Amino acid sequence: MMEYKGYVGRVEFDDTAEIFHGEIANLRDVITFEGRSVDELRQAFRDSVDDYLAWCAERGKEPDKPFSGKFVVRVAPEVHRSISTAAQSAGKSLNAWVAERLAAATRKRGAS
Question: Where are the domains of the chain?
């Protein structure tokens, strides 16, 4: 995985063609890049993001954002009640309480 300006690129290596190729994750628009070395791949990734942002600006189009910061989670009513109670006990909103727990869980796993 690579990150630049908030965009995340997934990378694979094609052993037959001896080239790295990647795509920006989680967008409706398709943005790809490739390179033969890590440095070349990194530069192609950055160039692709910059080109995409410039293309959007030229057309007055709002670029896709990789993540909005919002997502819906469905849980059993008992779990909903439990986390709501825990949030109230902590003096926090449900959203703040859950966000803190998710952030802590990703830090523990090294996924931040």
Answer: 2-59, 77-109
Q: In angstroms, what CA-CA distances link 94 with 57, 67, 91, 100?
A: 37, 21, 9, 10
CATH 3.30.160 correct for 2-59: yes
CB-CB contact of 35 with 51 (8 Å): no
* Cβ neighbours around 31 below 10 Å, total: 19
Collapsing DSSP to helix, strand or coil, 37 comes out as coil
pLDDT digits (tens, 9 = 90+) for 60-103: 999 988 766 778 899 999 999 999 999 999 999 998 999 999 99
Burial (CB count within 10 angstroms: exposed 0-12, middle 13-18, buried 19+), residue 35: middle
pTM above 0.70, yes or no: no
